[in-house]
Amino acid sequence: MGGEILDVVVGAPFWVAVLRIATPLVLGTLGVLLCERAGVLNLGIEGIMVAGAFAGWLAVYQGSGLWTGVGVAAVAGAGLGLLHAFLTVPLGLSQHVSGLGVTMFGTSLAYYAYRVTFPNVSAPPTIQPFAPMDWLPVPVLNTQTPLTLFALVVVPVIAYVLNRTPAGLAVRMVGENPGAAEGQGDGGRGDERGEHPRIRPHGHPRRKQGFPSDLVGAHEDHASEARRDEVLDLVEPVGERL
Fold first, then answer.
1. Alpha carbons 237 and 146: distance in angstroms, whole number
2. Where are the alpha helices (DSSP H) in 38-94?
3. Which of 59-68, 73-82, 130-139, 174-183 has the lowest mean pLDDT?
4. How far apart are CA 201 and CA 211, in angstroms?
5. pLDDT for 83-99, tens place per residue?
6. Closest CA to 220 of 182, 176, 168
7. Residues 32 and 41 sit within 8 Å (Cβ to Cβ)
């Protein structure tokens, strides 16, 4: 039994399936990562993904190109993201409730649009997907589509942008310390709780993460408190002498 499982795990078809299934999850996770690092809790990611997938699929089914469908899906997802931003920033609604509402709205809208567009179908219609990248001299990747390669390439790119560029520093500063962002002039005028006016996270941004992010946030909070205590130990004696 163990040998059969090992044969499956080390076989190329297993990793081909893993990469194919993981591609939308990687792209969705990267979007959530950017939101979380900016201090935004986006519980509407599922509805955004469903609505975007259906919009892109429908565009291709109606005769558009595959890359045009990808663009339509991106625009549809961005539209729901703007809806979430409108609910949480100008209206000041809870990010939890707004995110769940966006999820239900996006999934329901996609289902309704599908039923309206195809009222009498016994089997879901299909489209011609992207062709495998046969030109790529990598055994497993050459069976994947360009979107899988894009997802794998964009991971280190986003990591570099977040950790090695001023824009990434600004995103992380807004999420981790909105008061510092306001002091640097990146946030304009915050409220009495020091929240960033562009995101207004209804409490400290890292308090509103999912379970895995809560573990990371707890570690970051502990490290931040330790660094603050170290700074106070250095500054207080100087203040007393002055």
1. 60
2. 45-61, 66-88
3. 174-183
4. 18
5. 998 998 888 888 899 99
6. 176
7. no
Distance of alpha carbon 145 from the chain centroid: 21
d(CA 155, CA 135): 22
Per-residue pLDDT tens digits for 193-236: 344 444 444 433 333 334 343 433 333 343 344 344 444 444 44
Tokens of 123: 């089997």
Confidence tier at 73 by pLDDT (50, 70, 90): very high
pLDDT at 148 over 80: yes
pLDDT at 4: 75
Pair of tokens at residue 147: 């979107």
| φ, ψ for residue 65, nearest 5 deg | -75, 165
How far apart CA 183 and CA 173 sit, in angstroms, is 11
Report CA torsion sign: 223, 225, 228, 232.
negative
Could you tell me what percentage of the chain is helix, strand and coil, using 3-state DSSP and rounding each to the nearest 5? 70, 0, 30
Give residues with Cβ within 8 angstroms of 107, minimum separation 6: 46, 47, 50, 51
Residue 242 three-state SS: coil
Amino acid identity of residue 74, one-letter, is A
